[in-house]
Specification:
By secondary structure, this protein is α/β, with parallel strands linked by helices. It folds into 3 domains: 255 residues, ANL, N-terminal domain (Rossmann fold, 3-Layer(aba) Sandwich), CATH 3.40.50.12780; 118 residues, Luciferase, domain 3 (Roll), CATH 2.30.38; 106 residues, GMP Synthetase, Chain A, domain 3 (2-Layer Sandwich). Helix content is 31%, strand content 26%. The protein contains 17 helices and 26 strands. It has a 9-stranded mixed sheet, sandwiched between helices. Helix 5 crosses helix 6. The longest helix has 17 residues. The relative contact order is 0.09.
Length: 547
């Protein structure tokens, strides 16, 4: 397969009537449903809260959207942004963009209106597909983004500044468009960021996406009979690229709209899911709910569940020990990657290496790794700390319109610098620290500079530093070290109230009043702060998790 779209066409040809996607909605997603109501619709043919799509339908919907874009004059290389919550339309829209030869530009659903506009401008997006959850945000800027000439709305009650997606594509041909593509063609733009939090546009080619399919299937052995439970947001490479392993072999996937332990276990049970990818908080919540007696394993059919794997953030070894005690028959794997390497799998632990929990693992399928010194090229000696570098077919082409940033991260012979400090012990790679000042909390990236800048706007704040502290459930939490101006007063409650002006996920979970240390050049000494406030917390939480 040279392009990712060829896999979809193969699936539709070989298994046209097999179920490809299932969307399972949940009572607690704003609809105030109970499981009693959800159970009632299972006897109703159209299954109001559970939707299915065959491989033929998937391919035809993608074709219709591709033909719509072509009818509007979109051509190879044009960018189409996708701003949707997880839904059954998400993937057909994504593949429709690719079938038209255009580039898909998935957007983080947490973005503010200003961040959405920034990313649209950065990527030169000329079309935007969005859902009802984003109408208010889109309305704030849509008249100021002149490049976006097509605005498509997926949902009921289409706003006046957009066009109804479903009504328009229903009239388009379901035949595959005759757009010639190669593995070297650009397929998608995903967004990353450095320490400042300003996104960079990552260009991925079709070869990157196809390799990601092969990597995931090679690591976890998906077959046609496997069923993948997809919970994380599809805009993120972590969710979609883990699904790619099932996609490659025509396996079924379930899109679950909810993260509560009972919803996850019920979906695994009802949909006969065999593979589940979790974030640390979700795994933690499941174990806590079982230990409290809130959920009882005997109420669910879980015998077919064979693999639980985790990524996107540091994984506490004690958590996996707890998990294996409750689910002894599960294989376990952890995956490392970044959007610049087409998501997870550049490094993975491997299900056979659970005795090395704590390491991120070994080079993934088709990948090479090395740990380099300050020049970004020369390998360090075994056991020494350096920066982790990757090489393989999944390495991005470039940062879009940013040759300087591209040159900083892409080195000779195609090596990609990750920005993560690591060391190798007994053949396994262990992360030591992140060179990039990013906090990963519950699988989401938090950028300290953004939070620091916001807090500095408080008239009582003299100085502030934001660091990540270990957390048993979220992996890390943002902690604000606040220095108060002389003569001013400030309490933790007042800081928390002030931070209501931030999105919920960006708000510090801990406030520490202390002086902020800076070095002679004026830079905050964050390693010193982590030593002061992080080590004791890590030890305490690891002890608390011990079994």
């Amino acid at each position: 397969m040279n392009t990712i779209t060829e896999i979809l066409e193969r699936n539709a040809s070989e298994w046209p009537n097999d179920i490809a996607l299932v969307e399972v909605d949940t009572p607690d997603e704003g609809k105030q449903r109970t499981w009693k109501e959800a159970e009632l619709v299972e006897s109703v043919p159209d299954k109001e809260y559970r939707h299915e799509m065959t491989w033929r339908d998937f391919d035809e919907k993608a074709n219709r959207f591709a033909n719509f874009l072509l009818s509007r004059g979109y051509k190879k290389g044009d960018k189409v942004a996708i701003l949707l919550m997880n839904c059954i339309e998400w993937l057909p829209i994504y593949f429709g963009v690719l079938k038209a030869g255009c580039m898909a530009v998935p957007l983080n659903f947490r973005y503010t209106a200003d961040e959405i506009r920034y990313c649209l401008d950065l990527a030169d997006a000329s079309a935007l597909v969005f859902g009802p959850e984003f109408t208010g945000r889109v309305e704030q800027f849509i008249d100021r983004v002149s490049k976006v000439r097509t605005r498509l709305y997926v949902g009921e009650d289409c706003p006046t500044f957009a066009e109804p997606y479903r009504a328009l594509i229903d009239y388009c041909s379901s035949r595959s468009p005759s757009v010639k593509m190669t593995q070297d063609d650009e397929a998608a733009i995903y967004f990353s960021s450095g320490t400042t939090g300003f996104p960079k546009a990552i260009v991925l080619q079709h070869r990157c996406l196809v390799h990601s399919c092969k990597v995931e299937q090679a690591h976890h052995g998906q077959t046609k009979d496997d069923c993948f439970l997809c919970i994380p947001p599809l805009y993120h490479t972590g969710a979609k690229m883990h699904w790619f392993g099932s996609f490659l072999v025509g396996g079924r996937a379930v899109l679950l709209k909810g993260v509560k332990p009972e919803w996850i276990l019920r979906a695994v049970s009802r949909e006969h899911c065999t593979i589940v990818w979790l974030l640390v908080p979700w795994a933690q919540d499941i174990l806590d709910a079982i230990e409290r007696g809130d959920v009882k394993l005997e109420d669910y059919e879980l015998s077919q569940w064979r693999l639980m794997h985790i990524g996107a953030q540091p994984v506490p070894p004690a958590l996996i020990k707890r998990w294996k005690k409750v689910f002894p028959s599960h294989d376990y794997d952890t995956n490392y990657g970044l959007s610049e390497s087409t998501g997870p799998g550049a490094v993975h632990l491997g299900v056979e290496n659970i005795d090395h929990v704590g390491a991120i693992g070994i080079a993934g399928f088709g990948w090479q790794t090395k740990i380099v010194g300050q020049d970004g090229v020369t390998p360090v000696k075994p056991g020494e700390v350096g920066e982790l570098a990757l090489k393989g077919p999944g390495v991005m082409k470039e940062y879009y319109k940013n040759p300087e940033a591209t040159a900083e991260i892409l080195k000779e012979d195609g090596w990609l610098l990750t920005g993560d400090m690591a060391e190798e012990r007994e053949g396994f790679i262990y992360l030591v620290d992140r060179a990039k000042d990013v906090i990963i909390s519950g699988g989401e990236n938090l950028y300290p500079v953004q939070i620091e800048d916001f807090l500095r706007s408080n008239p009582a704040v003299k100085d502030v530093a934001v660091i990540g502290l270990p957390d048993a459930r979220l992996g890390e939490i943002a902690a604000a070290i606040v220095s108060v101006k002389e003569g001013a007063t400030l309490t933790e409650a007042e800081v928390n109230d002030f931070c209501l002006g931030l999105p919920r996920y960006k708000r510090p979970r801990k406030v520490i009043f202390a002086e902020v240390p800076r070095n002679p050049t004026g830079k905050i000494e964050k390693p010193k702060l982590r030593r002061m406030y992080g080590a004791a917390g890590l030890v305490a939480q690891q002890n608390g998790l011990a079994v």
